[in-house]
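Response to reviewer comment R2.3. The reviewers asked that we include at least one raw input/output pair. We reproduce the pair for Undecaprenyl-phosphate galactose phosphotransferase here without editing.
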Amino acid sequence: MHGVKLQSPAWERPGRVEMVFDYIKRVVVPVLLFCGDYFATIAAVWTAAFIRNSVLPEVWFAQEFQDIPYLYTYVVIPMAVIFFMHFDRLYVRRLPLWQQTEKIFKVSCYAVLFILTLMYFNEAAKTLSRPFMVLLWLFTFTYLSIVRYVIKKLLIATNIWQIPVIIVGAGKTAQLLISAFAQDAGLGYKVVGLIEDQPKRAKIFSKIPFIGNFENAVDSIGQTGVQNVIIAAPGLKRERLVNLVYQLQPHVKNITFVPDLFGIPVGSLELETLFDEKAVLLKVRNNLARYYNRVLKQLFDILATLLGGFFAIPLLFVIALLIYFDSPGSVIFSHKRIGKNGVPFDCYKFRTMVCNAQEVLAAYLADNAAAKEEWERDFKLKNDPRVTRIGKFLRKTSLDELPQLINVLRGEMSLVGPRPIVKDEIDKYGEYIHDYYLVRPGLTGLWQVSGRNDIDYDSRVQMDSWYVRNWSVSLDIVMLLKTVKVVIKRDGAY
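Raw output as returned:
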């Protein structure tokens, strides 16, 4: 082979500028995340100590609160959190927001348990304040989640966090991926090109260039220098997918492909590899089939409702006065909804309609064919004549649903879950009604944080089913955080 110069793989011959920039990203990003975690944890210690020492009544406790030693505040506690963050590879992994929140939730639990154990063996547990440790866990989780989100948003704005990727395939799956990358700060992928055999299909992605087809994929990707490829063609035949992966693998650093698993609950998916047989096993857990998970979900609902309800009392009082003076009738009304196992219950809401709502609705639908069709399709009206002036505001902000906190405390509803339905909607759920019956309906849920009334009914049903099959405590926490954002922006509400 004299005189023949073999071409090295693409990742071995980057330009000097790209090498420097890539090195900066590999160093700067973990350092920024490390610093953010450190100061977020210290802030959690300060906040927990302040609330325990200055806000909570001292008469509640048998002994006086002892100051946290500086060694624990600035070294032990932050380093414990950072250790578990590093152990779970959260300084290098790219995860969707809800998965990142789940990891931070677990890290906070592990760190607090480790600190408790350490203080026990150091005999510091004798003066330990249990409310302080609970508050420390709560604020550690909260501050870490917020700081991580903000830092990654800033990194994306400065193009430090983003990694350029090329997507092979330009169908519905590619659209979903591009939308997810644009909305989720945790991933940081920037799609810079499309590979597709049908150029007309690629034209729907107006802002992303079409750079080639499946046959010349290696050359097309090689010319861009991009080292991360996602194959988003789940309908591709196995032989063609294998050949495509084999062709691309020597020329790029990472290849990700989307398998044809749509409809399968993937929130608790576990992967096992059989090397000798060259096979992959995918295990799907049913989290809600475990008794302790159901108990954990209800405990979380009760504790979060009691804590949030305490701060919401003044708001509830103001809303009640506004409704009372706006229109005659009761402030709160109840409506029969279908709960867990198909058991009906009285669902409470602030009254947003006139007292003779049924008569007004019947007359309106009789005179308006388009409204009747909308009602039969969605069980909602965009321009509902029954809604009062205050009721429009309450519905826009979803504040009309606050009395459902009573249903949560009574064990009839959950903070997060499927949208509570009426008896007439059972048939519209079809086979998915069995998923609905597995859990308590929620005050908020996946439908409410994904566009609410802008989403068609069938999509709502599928979202309810997806939530049940992929449930976790961390998913509930993400849904609650997203609910705050949606309520402020008022997306899809009427």
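Residues 16-157 form one domain. The CA atoms of residues 111 and 191 lie 36 Å apart. Further pairs are available on request from the corresponding author.
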